[in-house]
Amino acid sequence: MSSFNWYSNSKDSNRDNHDTTSSYLSPLFTSAADLQLRFLCPSDLDQVKDLCKEWFPIQYPEAWYRDITSDPRFYSLAAVYQSKLVGLLIAEVKQSDAINKEDKGILDGRMYSNCTVGYILSLGVCSTFRRQGVASLLLDSFLNHVTQSENQICKAIYLHVLTMNSAAIRFYEKHYFRLHSFLPYYYSVDGKCKDGFTYVLYINGGHPPWGLLYPFLEKVLKYRFIH
Predict the structure, then answer these.
(1) Where is the N-acetyltransferase domain (predicted)?
(2) How far apart are the first and last CA of the chain?
(3) CATH architecture of the region 35-224
(4) Using CB atoms within 10 A of its CB, is residue 73 exposed (0-12), middle (13-18) or buried (19+)?
């Protein structure tokens, strides 16, 4: 099934589907304690569904909402302000051999055959709370999770994003994600095929398999599709 995100657009679930924001808070916040992070629970399902319908131009099956609000394999984190959800990050950590074929080149399978990877399905923030640090708080929480001592076998975090989503691309690059590959016709948006990118952040000593060629390919892709 497919996920779509204001910041990241990932599609691993159908084929199998971010500004670090600064440390200051929005004028909407009177103190840091006003914004809380917590994991989703089944009672959030209706509110999550409403937010996804508002944020993303695709429809998700009911099973997806049940999974992300109840299945512990998902790292489903919410930013909450005055008892309302204002931001969501949905991610998972999976075995590297479970990476879809279009993203197999993220890691060298011979070197990292027994490792895990983090995959960000979706990251979204309510419009009135964007550019205020909420997305970064959510992302930083997941980064802290996958870099804990017990998660050192996690060697990369990756995601998918529409090539035309310049705000998301700037956000991820600000957080040190690097363009890895171009995915032609990866998305279906309003009945039209759209291209995507895979972005990767290497962690815990992980690195790409392309060696000295990797920076060159990254520049070629950026020149062709972003500039």
Answers:
(1) 35-204
(2) 31
(3) 3-Layer(aba) Sandwich (3.40)
(4) exposed
